[in-house]
Design a protein that fits this description.
Helices cover about 5% and strands about 45% of the residues. It is an all-beta fold.
Length: about 450
């Protein structure tokens, strides 16, 4: 450093936190140094024996070497472990010119506390920017130094269980049919369209066969708020033919369903109404348990779009509702990393939300175990987005032009208190030591 006092201050910070053992001097002599940190530093040595690869043990990951005026060599990289090494003349540790983390949060706060701001100091006690977490849906709470979704968000769908009917129309739904070849009727579990369905069956059957309007039949409710993030789900009990389309009523965001089981669509509302409909001849689908819940979601703005974003995500003990990370958000334009536990087939996705419309851009089948913590890392640079699970690349998309300069990143849960989050780290992409892995 140009000013030796900068090195003294660094020594005091590090030693004061137990990271340096014995003595780190700022004058001549031979010294023993033991350091352990996962933060990024420059190691400076003047004269004498250089700090080379043979002298380093453990997690040192070298990236660049540069020389300053006066013959001072500087190695920039990640100092993992420098154990019992003799160094002649001078060794100083000091923080790199830019912060290692744009944002850091281990959520070490009192139980039941809201997220509030990210932590002011990182793992070494070095200063960070304190950034506010901003709620865009239901909020999260701190529980035992983990972040979990607050109270489960209310189901906004009226009569989503189809327990109440007036004639052959479900109560609370606007029903649109155009003739006998399109039909909404009450049926029982395991039952398809029938001329004489089981009375009081409590499930909804959607039927179309050779006519009707382009999107008929359909059922609609006006329950959304523009710009909010929602998770809409339905349980398909019996599938005979065609498709069931679930989403907003104007077609901005939708999912086409052709299998039985639990199905979830996460989207940003660009319409105020939801709809279930079909547009395929013939269609015969029986479904139940329509749910529309505002997602728990909060974001932080580190001021950079090209970052490495890492966090721990722990799956719940039960349930199949998704959760994940928010990337490059700005209103209805954003990206989501989505994990769906307990689901056969695709359960790990990179989703583009372009003006609220979801498009799956990369998928994988990971079979996430229950009650298990996974380290998820996302490397974003330019139009490239790569997603890593426990250090292994699982998802990749090379032409992510949407929201390329958006700088908001966050966490989201699809409205039930299931996933938990920990150890959020956001680092400038250019300063991250990619050779060391994710």
């Amino acid at each position: 450093p140009r000013d030796p006092q900068e090195g003294v201050a660094a020594r005091r910070r590090l030693c004061g936190r137990g990271r340096i053992q014995d003595s780190l001097q700022v004058a001549g002599g031979r010294h023993r140094v033991c350091a352990a940190t996962d933060d990024r530093h420059d190691v400076v040595h003047r004269g004498g024996m250089p700090v080379g690869d043979a002298d380093l043990h453990g997690g040192w990951r070298e990236s660049t070497v540069r020389r300053l005026p006066g013959g001072v060599s500087v190695r920039q990289g990640l100092l993992g472990e420098l154990t019992m090494v003799s160094i002649r003349d001078l060794l100083l540790l000091y923080p790199a010119g830019k912060k290692a983390y744009l944002a850091y949060d281990s959520f070490t706060r009192a139980n039941a506390e809201a997220l509030g701001n990210s932590e002011k100091r990182g793992p070494l006690g070095l200063a960070r920017l304190r950034l506010p977490w901003t709620i865009i849906g239901g909020d999260f709470d701190i529980v035992g130094n983990l972040v979990v979704a607050g109270d489960a968000q209310a189901n906004l769908a009226v009569n989503g269980t189809f327990a109440a009917w007036v004639g052959d129309d479900p109560t609370g739904w606007a029903v649109i049919e155009t003739g006998p070849v399109t039909d909404i009727t009450e049926v029982a579990a395991g039952e398809a369209h029938a001329a004489a369905p089981t009375p009081g069956g409590g499930l909804c059957n959607m039927y179309r066969n050779g006519g009707g309007g382009a999107n008929d039949p359909r059922i609609i409710q006006t329950i959304l708020t523009l710009g909010e993030l929602y998770a809409m789900s339905v349980d398909v009990d019996t599938y005979t033919s065609g498709l069931l389309r679930m989403g907003d009523a104007d077609g901005f965001a939708s999912m086409s369903i052709t299998t039985t089981g639990h199905h979830v669509l996460v989207f940003v509302a660009r319409s105020t109404a939801i709809a279930l409909r079909t547009l395929v001849d013939p269609t015969d689908v029986t479904f139940d348990n329509v749910s529309v819940r505002e997602c728990h979601a909060e974001y932080i703005d580190p001021g950079s779009a090209d970052v490495v974003y890492r966090a721990n995500l722990t799956t719940p003990a039960a349930g199949t509702d998704p959760a994940g990370l928010i990337l490059r958000r700005n209103g209805a334009t954003q990206w989501l990393v989505q994990m769906t536990p307990g689901t056969a087939g695709t359960d790990f996705e990179l989703i583009e939300l372009n003006n609220g419309v979801p498009t799956s851009r990369a998928q994988a089948d990971r079979d996430f175990a229950i009650n298990t913590t996974y380290r998820i890392a996302v490397a974003l640079t330019g139009q490239s987005i790569k997603v890593y699970q426990d250090g292994i690349e699982r998802l990749s998309y090379a032409t992510a032009a949407v929201g390329q300069t958006n700088t908001q990143f966050g966490i989201w849960d699809s409205a039930a208190a299931n996933f938990s989050f920990d150890n959020v780290e956001i680092t400038q992409y250019a300063r991250y030591n990619h050779a060391g892995g994710y």
